[in-house]
Write a structure and sequence with these properties.
Beta-Lactamase, 14 helices
Amino acid sequence: MSKSFQIFGEANESVIYNPDELIDLFLDCTVDGICLVDMDNRFIRINRMYTKIFGYTEEDIIGKRFTEFPNPEIVIEIIEAVKRGKAFHDIVTQRFHKDGTVLDIAVSYSPFRNSNGDIIAIMAIYRDITGHLNTERELKRTRELYELITENTSDMIKVYTKDKKILYASPSHEKGIGYTPEQLVGKNVYDIIFPEDKEYFDTVVQNLIDTGEPQLFQIRIKTVDNDVIYSETNISPIYNEQKEIDSFVAVGRNITDRVKNDDALRNLDRLSIIGQLAAGVAHEIRNPLTSLKGFSKLLKSTSEKGKQDNYLSIIMNELDRIDMIVNEFMSLAKPQAIQFEKENLIGILDSTINVLHPQALLHNVQIKRAYLLGDIELLCSPHQLKQVFVNFLKNAIESMPNGGNVHINIQKIENKRVLVSFRDEGIGIDTELMGFLGTPFYTTKDKGIGLGLTVSNKIIQEHNGIMKIESQPGVGTIVKVELECI
């Protein structure tokens, strides 16, 4: 006679169960599918989870041999071994649902003994791990795909910490800069960045941290042979579980050839500017030269100390004026290495106006500055920005053959940015021609080469800026440049 068991609930309410009822409760509440097969290989018991996993009802199963259902061949050997007392745990295999669907199953087999220790049946416990294995397979496929991409791409991919320590480097670095991934892992990013670009790199990273937005920038990288290449790099944040930036992934592309081509176009544009400004500079220098000749003769013809001092003072002022004009002109003409540094925007503009002043006088144009702001610091290449501003001012002057005014305005806007606008009172640009502006070698001027706006727009983009042009025929043109300030 089986012994009953008394179990107390939450409110000390007792319920009496006999062992058979407890077994039924256990079988129905477990998360695993369970079946019992007798020594003749017939099903004698299955639980509710078994029917849920495989789709068979008790009427489909009970009394039938397990060999009547699809099973791997090894199952027969396992069942025979269990009958001899062996047990098998967590065998990962594939079985079929009643509808034919393939299932991933972890199954354990154990001998089922009576009170005398005799084996009277085989117990099998099944757990459906299809979802788990599918997730693992998907992760494996994704990992293999990423490895395939990183191992075969020509782009240089790096992952590094907030302290700039490299955690991963793609094999493409060996072809790109001569370092193997093993040589790069553990290094600091600063070890391969051109020293003069480190401050610029820090600014880019800080912008990434402040905004959380990916940053596209151009930087110089040292190769294993201490050569330098130009890399166009996109850097993006990697977040941890707390939604904090934990590390960065950078994808860089060797654009050295493109930079050299861009430099050639810029030099061509600069030479064109110099040729067109030469007449104005010569005219501006001729005026003080005339004064120098006249006062030199006066200085020679007088012996009065007061007049000599006065004449010498005038001569020195005229020489300083010539020196300033020549220096500004040579600054524009001399090829400059691309290097970002802190520079005052007001100083760049004033220097540009000095260069264009002679040409403005020739065309009876007044350049009016409408900015009363203090110092506005930029991280920029001042010579490149000067080339951009010269282009804008020269276009504005040439658009007013009968003279007029060019208005330069500066205003600070949100997100640490500054807006510089150049407004002329010229002939304007037809609407149908606006779409062609910036196209290489497209120009509306007889002596133009069609590179000014193309080069200017490229330079502004490299400074993480935006250029916009608004024009109305017969009214004038406004060129707006938005730049980052420090």
